[in-house]
Amino acid sequence: MGFLTYLINGLSLGSVYAIIALGYTMVYGIAKMLNFAHGDVIMIGAYLVFMCMSNSGLPAVVSIVIAIACCTVLGIIIEKIAYKPLRKATNLAVLITAIGVSYFLQNMALLIFGSNPVSFTSVINWEGLSLAGGQLKITGNAIVTIITCLVIMFGLMWFVKNTKPGQAMRAVSEDKDAATLMGINVNATISLTFAIGSGLAAIAGALLCSSYPNLNPYTGSMPGIKAFTAAVFGGIGSIPGALIGGLLLGIIEILAKAYISSQLADAIVFAVLIIVLLVKPTGILGKQIKEKV
Amino acid sequence: MKNLNKSTQKLIISILVIVVLYIVMAVMESTGNLSSLMSGLLVPVCAYSLVAIGLNLCVGYLGELSLGHAGFMCVGAFTSAFFSKAYANTIPDVPRFILALLIGTFFAALFGFLIAIPVLRLSGDYLAIVTLAFGEIIKNVINVLYVGIDSNGLHVSMKDMMSLGLEPDGTLLVNGAQGITGTPRQATFLIGVLLVIFALVVTFNFVNSRTGRAVKAIRDNQIAAETVGLPITKYKLIAFTISAAIAGVGGVLYAHNINSLTATTNNFGYNMSIMILVYVVLGGIGNFSGSLIATVVLTMLPEMLRGLSNYRMLIYSIVLIALMLFNWAPDILKFRADHGLTSKTILGKIKKTKEVQ
Amino acid sequence: MKRKMLSLGLCAMMTASLLVGCGSGNTEGSAENVETSGELTWRIGGIGPTTGGAAQYGQGVMNAIQIAVDEVNAAGGINGYQISFNFQDDEADPQKSVNAYNTLKDWGMQILEGTVTSGACAAVSAETYNDRIFQITPSASSTSVIEGNDNTFQICFSDPNQGTVSADYIAENGLGTKIGVIYDSSDPYSSGVYQNFATEAANVGLDVVATEAFTSDSKTDFTTQLQKCKDAGADLLFLPFYYTEGSIVLTQANKMGYAPTMFGVDGFDGLLGVENFDVSLAEGVYLLTPFAADADDEATKKFVATYEESYKDTPNQFAADAYDGVYIIKEALEAANLTPEASNEEICDALISEIQNVNYNGLTGEGMTWNDKGEVSKDPKAVVIKDGGYVSVQ
Hints:
The structure holds 3 protein chains of 3 kinds. Chain A is mainly alpha-helical. Chain A has helices at about 1-30, 40-55, 60-85, 90-115, 140-160, 165-175, 175-180, 185-210, 220-235, 240-260, 265-280, and strands at about 120, 130, 135-140, 215. The model of chain A has no long low-confidence stretch (mean pLDDT about 90). By secondary structure, chain B is mainly α. In chain B, a hairpin with a 2-residue loop joins strand 1 and strand 2. Chain B has a domain at about 40-265. By secondary structure, chain C is α/β, with parallel strands linked by helices. Chain C contains 11 helices and 15 strands. At the A-C interface, helix 1, strand 1, helix 9 and helix 10 of A face helix 2, strand 7, helix 7 and helix 8 of C.
C-alpha cells in the first residue's frame, strides 16, 4: 500500500512537471530555443489567477481565462521585443536574452507583488477520490492536472496535425527556409507558438499553485528547471514525450525520496536522467537526428 | 612584434592591457584611491573570469554548450579549501596555497574527465542538460557531506554530523550545508591576475596547437573530421578536461577569498553556470578577451547600480537584454554598420583624433 | 572578421554601460537613507537579501531598522547625534554580501546591523573582524557567525540554543513520544538547528523515529516526507525551517489527513502573516518565537502599527529583532558615552565591552544580555497558535 501511495504522489508531482514541460517542448520544437523565461511566465499567470480569485472574488474559471489572455499577450510582447530581433542570430544569443527576460519578470513581480509569499487558493474544489477504504487518496488537484495534461496534449497534437497554422508550425520546425519558400509566414508562426506556449503557462501556473499553494516571485524558477529537465528526458520537441518525461520525473523523485534518501533525492533524479540519456541520447521519445554529410 | 602572426599579437595586446590595468589598480589601491567595493571585487572578478575562459573554451572551440561549469568551480573550491583548512597549522602558507591550487585544479580536471567520458557521446541541448545534471549532483552531494578529523583520523559521513562519531578533540572540516568556514584567506589580486594571464596563455597555445586545430575541425564538421581520421573522442576529452581544470582554478581563487564557503544555487548551482554562460556569450563566443571584459562589466554592473535600491536588479536585467540585442541582433548590427556605429569605425575615429593631436 | 567586429563593438558598448553604471553609483544612497549630508551622524549600515528567494526576510529587517532609526532620530538621536542608515542587498549570497559590506564601508559605515542570513553573515563577520567594525546580526543564528571573532553579536537565539531548547521543551512537557523531523539539508540554518536538536534529543531520551530532508531545489512537495513520518508513527513533527515552506507542509499534511503535533522554531514565525493563508491549518502549531505581532504590550503594539502603516504588511520576528537591534546599539553607545567622531575601532572596542553590560527589554525578550562570545541570553518563548493568534505556553 505504501508503494501505491508514493506512486500516486509521484503522479501528482509529475503531472505538474508535465504541464509545464508541454509549454517548453512546444516552443522548443518550433522555435528551437530554450525559453528559460517560461517558468516566470507561469509565476505571472499564477499571480493573475490569485489576484482575480482572491482579491476580486471572481470564479476560478473566469480567473483562469483572464490569466490565459493576459499571459498570451505577455508572451507575444516578450517575443516581439526580446526574441524576434535575434531570430537570425545564434541560438545561444536568444538563450541569454531569455535569461534576461527571466530576471526581468522576477524582479518586476518582486516590485509589484512584494516579496512576501501568498497562499494560493486552489482552483479545484474537489476532495478527490478515496480508494481502498480511505487508505489511498488521490487528490482532486492531481486528477484534474493529469486530465488537463492529457487534454492539452491531445489538443496540441490534433492542432499541429490537422489545422493550417499547425501544419505551418510543423513545416517551420522542419526547415525554416523551405517553409518560407512554400509561402508560410515564419515569423507569424513562431509568434503564434509563443502565444500558445504562454497561454499554457497560465494554466500550468494555476495548477502548480493549486497543488503547492505557495506563491512568490521565484515560484516559477525551480519547477521551470525541473520541467525543462522533464522535457529533455521525454525527448525535447516531442509533445507526448513531455507528458511521459514529466510523469516519470515526478515518480522517480518521489520514489527516490521514499526509498533511498530524501537528502540525495535531487542527485538521484539527475543521475537517472543521465543514465537514460546515455542509453537513449535523444530522450525517451525524441527523434533521432540524422546528420547530413 | 611585426613578425608574429595576428593571433599572437592579439594575445600579447590582451596581456599587456591586463598588466596595465593591474598596475593602475595596484597603484590606486596602495594610494588609497580605490574604493573598498572595487578592491573587494578584484579577486572575485578574476575568479569568474577564469571560469568564463574555461567555459569559452568549451562553448567556443569544442562547440558544446555546458551548463555545469559552476560544478567544476565548486569541486575546485571545495577540494582546495578542504586541503587548506585541514593543513592550516602544519604546512607554511605559501607551499600550502600552491598545493591547494594544484589539488583544486587536479580534482576539477578529474571530474571534468570523468564526466566528459559519458557526456561527449551526446550533443546539443542533451549535452547541456546532462552537464547541468552533473553540476546539480555535485552541489547536492557537497551539501550533505560531513567530514571531520580527530585523533583516530578522518571521518566521513553522507548523513549528518552526529554519525561522524567525532572524538571531543576532533574538528569538523566540512559541515554539510554550512560548508567550510575559516579557509585561510590567501587569494590576492596579484595571484588572480597571474592566474588569468596563465589561463589565457594556456588556452591560446591549446587553441593554436595541433590538438586545438583538430578540436576546431571537429566543431565545424564532425563527420568530415572523422573521415580524415581524427580521434574525435580523444580530442574532445582533452578540450573538456582543460576547460574544467581552468574553471577549477577559478574555484580555488574564489574559495581562498571568502571566509564561508557554501554550495548554494546562486554561487555553485545552475544559476552560476548560466551567469558564466552569459559572460561568455555576451563577450563573444570563442573570444577570450571578450569573456574577460564581459565578466568585469557584468560583475561590476549590479554593484554600480546599488544606488537604485529596489530597482537595481530590474535595471540590470533590462541592460542585459539591451546589450544582447545591441550586439547580436542582425538588424541592429546592420543599422550600426550603415551609420558608422560599429566599434571598428568608432575605434578608427578615436585613433584618428589621437593622430591629429 | 565579423566576429572581431562584434567583440570590438561590445567593448565600446560595455565601456559606455560601465560609465552609465558609475554615474548612477555616484548618486550615493538608496531610498532608505536618511538624508543628512554634511552633518556629523552615526552611520549604521544594514545588509540582507531584498531580492532573491529570501527577500521577505531581508525586507522585513530593512523596514524595521528604518522605523527604529526614524524613532530614535525623532527623539533626538544617540548622544545628541542623528543616525544615518544605509541598507544594501546581498541576495543571501556570501560573496555578494561581502560586496554589500564593502559598499557600506565606502559610505563610511561605523556599525553594521546584519547580515540577515547565516551563510552570508559568516563571510561578512570575518571582514568586520579584520576591519574592527562592530557587528550585530538580527537573525543569523549559526554558531559560525560568532566563532573566531569578538566583535559579532547575535540578537536571535543561536542554532544550538533553539535545537536544544526545543528538544528539552518537548521532553519536559511530553508533547510527543515518537518524533519525526523534516529539515532543509541545503540550508545552514535548518541543518544547524536539526543537528543540535538531534544531539539533545538523544540526551533527553526522545525517540526520533524518522528524519527526512528536503533541499532548496525540491521544496514544493513534502508529501513523501510526511508519508514516511506518518508510516513511522510519529506523533510530533519537529520542523526547523522557514514559514514559506511551513505553510506548504501544513496544507499537505492536512490534505493527507495527518495531524501530528507540529513544532516549529523561530523560522515559523510569520506563518500567520502569509496572505490568504488558511490559519485554521496552523491551529495547535507550537513554535519558538521571541515575538508575537499581536502581543498586548505597548511597545509591540506601537511597532506593529507603525510597520503596518508604512509597509502594508505584518512584521515578523526578523523585523522585531532588527528593531530591537537599533535600540541595543543605542543603549550600548550611550553607556560608552561616545560621539560619531570616534574611530571605528574605538566604537567597536567600546561596544564590545558595553554590550556585555546591557540588560535590554525589547520586543523580542525581557532582560536580554550578551556574553563575550556574542550569544544573547534570552528565554525562547514557546507559543502555540490558537484561534489564529499566538498564545504563550509555559
